[in-house]
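Appendix B, record 7
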Amino acid sequence: MLTITNTLSNKKEQFNPQPEHTIKMYVCGITPYDYAHIGHARVYITFDMMYRLLTFLGYSVDYCRNFTDIDDKLITRAQKEYGDKNLYHTVASTYIATFQQEMKALNCLTPTFEPRVTDNMPEILRFVENLIKEGKAYAIKGDVYFSIESFPEYGKLSKQKINDLEAGTRVEINEIKKNPLDFALWKSEEEGTFWKSPWGWGRPGWHIECSALAKKYLGGHITIHGGGMDLMFPHHENEIAQSESLYGKPFSTYWMHNAFVRIDKEKMSKSLGNFFTIRDTIKEFDPMVLRFFILNHYYRAPLDFSHEDLTMLQKSYQKLCLFFSRFACKDADHKAIKESETVKKMLAFLCDDLNTPGMFGVVFENLAALGQNQEEACLVKALLQHVLGLHLVPLKEKEVIITPEIQQLIDARNQARIDKDWKKSDELRDALQKMGVDVHDKKS
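Structure tokens (predicted):
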């Protein structure tokens, strides 16, 4: 039985969707104004695994992940790169293409729907109009704002109370708003710019798009809404307010949020400038190593990222690849995979709120036994490939060119070992490993 931590209740809950209904899963996508970073990789690998697991368990799943292809950051980038803010779509298309290549490299399945905001403007405008008709939003000088006072449950996801919230935290302060915390549904622009609306020319606010897209592609109610923990407030909180105000029923049954990726114990983000892009990381490491690294950590726990940790996990991944390459496995029957005793243990962890560290623990603890049982080994391999999305193809050894600097370190380490200066020997070994040289000492 699958259980997941529901952010809404802040409890681990049994996954119990309506019988015979297709699972509707919505995950907030990227704003394509720059290259995606490791934080994005964590979100989309996590929910790709969720998508795969639900499918493996027999559910039919519709998965929607959007592209926010109109936004302040895109407009700024277009003005900076092309001298024309109206070329935001060129910026978006460039980074969307790169992102899709990266997702393919990371073996993330293509979602059922990947809508762009700009292709769905009629639905967004209709959603805003209906909120105004219901008295949940108001128009002033061409802008439209959602009135948070019209939604008494505002704050139920992030466990915040309206009276305790301070204007200014990821909220745009504007003197014309009735309440400082009211958020923009439509932003006015100069005549002839972007899209024409009943309130004048303009473009949508950030939050309205997901409510409108979820309605169009998945229906008025969704089963699972996912994303990074940083989106819980205000983005997901605002989605709830918009959708539930209009339809009078829960927007999503389950809310799932993965924790931050951290660099030196700080949240990784572009605004802090302490981030690694997927693009650069998979130039240095095989994409499957990055996927394996992310899946080795429980999705709700902070993930401390470093190239040193990736290098360590690379060895573990290669160990798995070499182990399973010993067996000539055929395509495994779905029923046979589920009936495997080792797979049952693995699934017990996976179905316990995606406990991937526990699941990998089962695999490594049973390697010796699996080595004596090809049939069982092949069933375990099949689960790792189909649900975890790991290729399990042995990595190619990188050819290291021994530069004079590297040779000097090797010679210094050899001398340290002769002198039995083990501390210095270890320090030099670590230095060599950072340069891509893996040192193997011969037994004397």
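Remarks on this record: The chain has three domains: 3-258, 284-291+307-386, 399-444. The chain has 16 helices and 14 strands.
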